[in-house]
UniProtKB/TrEMBL annotation, chains A, D:
InterPro entries, per database record: PurS (IPR003850), PurS-like_sf (IPR036604)
Cellular component GO terms, alphabetical: cytoplasm
Pathway: Purine metabolism; IMP biosynthesis via de novo pathway; 5-amino-1-(5-phospho-D-ribosyl)imidazole from N(2)-formyl-N(1)-(5-phospho-D-ribosyl)glycinamide: step 1/2
Family classification: Belongs to the PurS family.
Function per UniProt: Part of the phosphoribosylformylglycinamidine synthase complex involved in the purines biosynthetic pathway. Catalyzes the ATP-dependent conversion of formylglycinamide ribonucleotide (FGAR) and glutamine to yield formylglycinamidine ribonucleotide (FGAM) and glutamate. The FGAM synthase complex is composed of three subunits. PurQ produces an ammonia molecule by converting glutamine to glutamate. PurL transfers the ammonia molecule to FGAR to form FGAM in an ATP-dependent manner.
Species this chain originates from: Isachenkonia alkalipeptolytica
UniProt keyword list: ATP-binding, Cytoplasm, Ligase, Nucleotide-binding, Purine biosynthesis
The protein's name in its UniProt record: Phosphoribosylformylglycinamidine synthase subunit PurS
GO BP annotations, alphabetical order: 'de novo' IMP biosynthetic process
UniProt gene name: purS
Substrates-to-products reaction catalysed: N(2)-formyl-N(1)-(5-phospho-beta-D-ribosyl)glycinamide + L-glutamine + ATP + H2O = 2-formamido-N(1)-(5-O-phospho-beta-D-ribosyl)acetamidine + L-glutamate + ADP + phosphate + H(+)
Major enzyme class: ligase
Compartment(s): Cytoplasm
Main location: cytoplasm
Pfam families, alphabetized: PurS
From TrEMBL, chain C:
Any one GO CC term of the record: cytoplasm
The protein, known as: Phosphoribosylformylglycinamidine synthase subunit PurQ
Pathway participation: Purine metabolism; IMP biosynthesis via de novo pathway; 5-amino-1-(5-phospho-D-ribosyl)imidazole from N(2)-formyl-N(1)-(5-phospho-D-ribosyl)glycinamide: step 1/2
SMART domains according to UniProt: GATase_5 (SM01211)
Any one GO molecular function term: ATP binding
EC annotation from Swiss-Prot or TrEMBL: 6.3.5.3, 3.5.1.2
Keyword hit for Manganese: no
Gene name as annotated: purQ
Length: 79, 574, 223, 79
């Protein structure tokens, strides 16, 4: 089964990379790019298991490794 | 088009293959000849000229012909070095191209058993101003070098960066690595000992680098076409594990020979180790760890996946290898054995897929050309140019400021400050001086390193320009307090099949040879990169000289800054 | 007294820390492999710079899973000394031994050079040989040395005088110019600059020695 | 308007990061993690405009800057 995990910076944390890309886009002439934030998309391929079990495993992986909850938040979808 | 033509072989070359085999080659065999006889692997257009290079000297322990050259620096210590180009990959994907270039040259050094202690790089791009493309390439290349070298913990201590229109479509990325080794630890890439197992360690084999001119096969479907990729992605973490595992292995007596998998992948590695050893090898490709399950044998044999090594192991010592490699989190696999029948045999389980004389693939079998050469027209024109008509600048102050601002002259600090140049706490002279100096731990000695080439001079006169490159490198080392000892040369040129370009190459080799003989700095390793041109123009001839020098007492190094008020300034020379 | 330098698979300042302690400070030191579970014999643990497990995903993220980090946590709980340098600092924050996180430098580039540091607190096990307000010149080399933390955390760090070293010229964008912090108990220090690179006179800078001298003095004093 | 862009490596390109994370998860004891691929999630805030225009702008930004189409592919959603 496929799981997609989305890890993004908490709103309170500044994102220099996003700001740099926003600047670059604006400089290139794209108007109205009001903000850019960069996060991670982590695609997991898990051996098949009941959805509840998958959820539990994914959440633990996120808490322990995939996201640093001091600065990041995460969501996920099980496909 | 014929299959052999798609693989980059000429009709005569194909006929030569048939003659050497005594039959028509099958597809896998033809692919193997295709990559081994490519310019990159066979040096078919340059080899004939190498005899001019001085390659021996009282310090030389290993000249050209191995993964890297080695010189003696006394106290039972030796220095291994080599330069390698990664020009075309860097033009396609600058970050990964430069990163994998660094990865490749590091493997050449530790494959000799040496501990890599310094990296340098020599870069050429089109004009920087007003070119987004050049800025993108430059940023990507610098980040790639930084990303890979920094992670490996090898300081990048020097290099050069030049901008010139001739490199617009074809940037140059040459990386040089220097390692330190004790005399008795030197290892060579040869498959000795009939029956000895051949083992594979490192990353699994994917379709990376299976592509480009030397690959074609009617059997492959469109789908696999899509899957194959010429872009290799560097994995410095894997390389670090390979480095540590390899050096630890080489400290045991389990290893008879070792070779990295670089250009032409497994094909080249098995062929080179076999011909330098007992002459033959038998490999079973069903045992090769793969990244994708549906790979064709051709793809497995010519893949250029990064971060892989081939080991020739003393029979019965497989467990030692498994244990040490396992400690570093890697897997090892026996994939074949050494034979003495002179044949290179590729099997898939029991089925023999390819069977050919090993030597026929290697430089002894590969064709060797000595092409026509002719002085480029522009040389005559520039010799006749009247320089007296050039006016004196009106405002010297302003001209001076403009010169300082020119990208070719301005400080490159913003580049080398992205490289960790201090890790290993041995960098005595950091980038920014004439040459970098590295102390050799456990001795009083130091080595000085530099890369140099002014390609504008080489364009005007390749022979003199090449001599000047050697002389400049030597002056840089002397200015740091070192005695020049040896060079590695990165020869970057246009197509050798064009007489004017081959003239430039030939003249350069002769110029380098003369200067190296004069300065007693033998050529101990090097690399040739041809076909650096676009439909518009070829690059300026760019023979990059990487030179190493020795300081008997590293405390007596010298830097270029003014030290104190009142010091006298003198000018030496003419 | 004995130091231990932890070696992760892609540590690369392990050797520099080892030689700094052994050759420059003249103290006993061992390398400690990342799978080691017993580290009781050591008084001071150094988590060196480098790229631990490749530092993929986030710097220091995977290292917190290693066996030796369990042992380091226990060691720290006992009040023994731990210094994390560069990647070591990142690992300590990921492992929860120090608050906050280290993110990409604000200019998005790797920075290698020498930083001028202010000594903000000389009343710690790592800075007792320094004077407050003193300037230290210490090499830096990192791509992700930009210290971030929530406001409450920063406030607490200030109130407890846990901010030990700050940058004079803050190039990586760290909040409060933070270059190094200690934990609440004061026995765990994390710093991005590399004191081990400034110990050997041949390299032209010995300012880093004072950090190790402080640790040694503290350990000798048996405080 | 909000746009989410997902940039991932092409299938033929190896992903050392993902492989290393897979190894770490497996070593940590999570079973059945068969593959991990790491990509980027880019959140754009654009000034409001007709959907067709937004699409065109986003695609161009992806081609020119947000994705490196030599080794990456992208998809996006306009929210
Ligand atoms: N320009 C050169 N000058 C001297 N030696 C060279 C030169 N080019 C290649 N060589 C030598 O030829 C051998 C093969 O080089 P190369 O094919 O670049 O190695 P690799 O197998 O790593 O690709 C090496 O020993 C190298 O030092």
């Amino acid at each position: 089964m496929k799981v997609k995990v989305y890890v993004t910076l908490k709103d309170s944390i500044s994102d220099p990379q996003g700001t740099a890309i926003q600047g670059a886009l604006t400089k290139k002439g794209y108007e109205g790019v009001e903000s850019v934030r960069i996060g991670k998309l982590i695609e997991l391929e898990l051996s098949d298991r009941p959805e509840a079990e998958a959820k539990e495993a994914v959440e633990e992986m996120c808490e322990k490794l995939l996201a640093n909850t001091v600065i990041e938040k995460y969501t996920y979808e099980i496909l | 088009m014929n299959l052999y033509e798609e693989l980059g072989l000429k009709k005569e070359e194909y006929e030569r293959v048939v003659e050497l085999l005594g039959r028509e080659p099958n597809e896998l065999e033809l692919n193997m000849y295709g990559v081994m006889w490519s310019e990159h692997c066979s040096y078919k257009h340059s080899r004939a000229l190498f005899k001019h290079f001085p390659t021996t000297g009282k310090r030389v322990l290993q000249g050209p012909g191995e993964n890297a050259g080695i010189i003696d620096i006394g106290d039972n210590m030796a220095v291994a070095m080599k330069i390698e180009s990664h020009n075309h990959p860097s033009a396609v994907e600058p970050y990964q191209g430069a990163a994998t270039g660094v990865g490749g040259i590091i493997r050449d050094i530790f494959a000799m058993g040496a501990r890599p202690v310094a990296l340098l790089n020599s870069l050429r791009f089109g004009e920087l101003e007003n070119s987004e493309r050049v800025q993108y390439l430059l940023d990507g290349v610098v980040e790639g070098i930084s990303g890979y070298g920094n992670c490996m913990g090898i300081p990048t201590v020097g290099g050069e960066t030049f901008f010139n229109k001739s490199y617009e479509g074809n940037p140059l990325v040459n990386a040089m690595c220097v390692g330190v080794i004790e005399h008795d630890k030197i290892h060579r890439a040869s498959a000795k000992g009939v029956g000895n197992p051949v083992m594979y360690i490192g990353a699994s084999t994917g379709r990376d680098g299976v592509g480009g001119a030397s690959f074609a096969s009617v059997e492959l479907t469109e789908e696999s076409e899509e899957k194959r990729s010429a872009v290799q992605v560097g994995d410095p973490f894997m390389e670090k594990l390979l480095l540590e595992a390899s050096l630890e292995l080489l400290d045991t007596d389990a290893i008879v020979g070792i070779q990295d998998l670089g250009a032409a992948g497994l094909t080249s590695a098995v062929c080179e180790t076999a011909t330098r050893g007992e002459g033959g090898m038998d490999v079973d490709i069903s045992r090769i760890p793969r990244r994708e399950s549906d790979m064709h044998p051709i793809e497995v044999m010519i893949s250029e996946s990064q971060e892989r090594m081939l080991l020739i192991v003393r029979k019965g010592q497989e467990e030692t290898v498994n244990r040490i490699v396992g400690k570093w989190g890697l897997h090892s696999k026996v994939i074949g054995k050494v034979t003495d029948d002179g044949r290179l045999r590729v099997r898939d389980g029991e089925e023999v897929l390819a069977d050919m004389p090993a030597e026929s693939l290697d430089s002894s079998g590969a064709p060797k050309y000595y092409k026509d050469y002719q002085e480029p027209k522009h040389m005559k024109e520039s010799r006749c140019e009247d320089l007296t008509g050039i006016p004196q600048p009106k405002d010297l102050n302003q001209t001076f400021m403009e010169l300082l601002r020119a990208p070719n002259i301005a400080s490159k600090e913003w580049i080398y400050n992205q490289y960790d140049h201090m890790v290993r706490t041995s960098t005595v002279i950091k980038p920014g001086s004439d040459a970098a100096v590295i102390r050799i731990r456990g001795t009083e000695k130091g080595i000085a390193l530099t890369t140099d080439c002014n390609s504008r001079l080489c364009y005007l006169n390749p022979r003199e320009g090449s001599k000047i490159a050697v002389a400049e490198a030597a002056r840089n080392l002397v200015a740091a307090g070192a005695k020049p000892a040896a060079i590695t040369d990165g020869l970057n040129f246009g197509s050798p099949e064009k007489p004017e370009r081959f003239y430039e190459f030939r003249e350069s080799v002769l110029g380098l040879s003369e200067a190296c003989r004069e300065l007693d700095t033998p050529v101990i390793s090097g690399n040739v990169s041809f076909y650096n041109e676009t439909d518009k123009a070829a690059i300026y001839p760019t023979p990059i000289v990487g030179m190493v020098g020795v300081l008997e007492d590293v405390r007596k190094h010298m830097t270029l800054d003014f030290k104190e008020e009142g010091n006298v300034i003198m000018l030496l020379g003419e | 007294m004995k130091f231990g330098v932890i070696v992760f698979p892609a540590s690369n300042c392990d050797l520099d820390s080892y030689y700094a302690i052994k050759d420059m400070m003249g103290e006993k030191v061992d390398y400690i492999w990342h799978e080691e579970e017993k580290i009781e014999e050591y008084d001071g643990i150094i988590i060196p710079g480098g790229f631990s497990y490749g530092d993929y995903l986030r710097c220091g993220a995977v290292a917190q899973f290693s066996k030796v980090m369990e042992a380091v946590k226990a060691h720290a709980e006992k009040g023994k000394l731990v210094i994390g340098i560069c990647n070591g600092f990142q690992i300590l924050t990921e492992a929860g031994l120090l608050p906050g996180a280290l993110v990409r430098n604000k200019n998005l580039k790797f920075i290698c050079g020498t930083a001028q540091l202010n000594v903000e607190n000389n009343d710690t096990a790592f800075t007792n040989k320094l004077t407050e307000g003193e300037t230290l010149r210490i090499p830096v080399a990192h791509g992700e040395g930009n210290y971030v933390a929530q406001d409450e955390v920063l406030q607490k760090l200030k109130n407890n005088r846990q901010i030990v070293l700050t940058y004079r010229d803050n190039k990586n964008g760290s909040m409060e110019d933070i270059a190094g912090i200690v934990n609440e108990q004061g026995n765990v220090l994390g710093m991005m600059p590399h004191p081990e690179r400034a110990c050997d006179p041949i390299l032209g800078n010995t300012d880093g020695r004072k950090i190790f001298e402080s640790m040694i003095a503290y350990l000798k004093g048996g405080r």
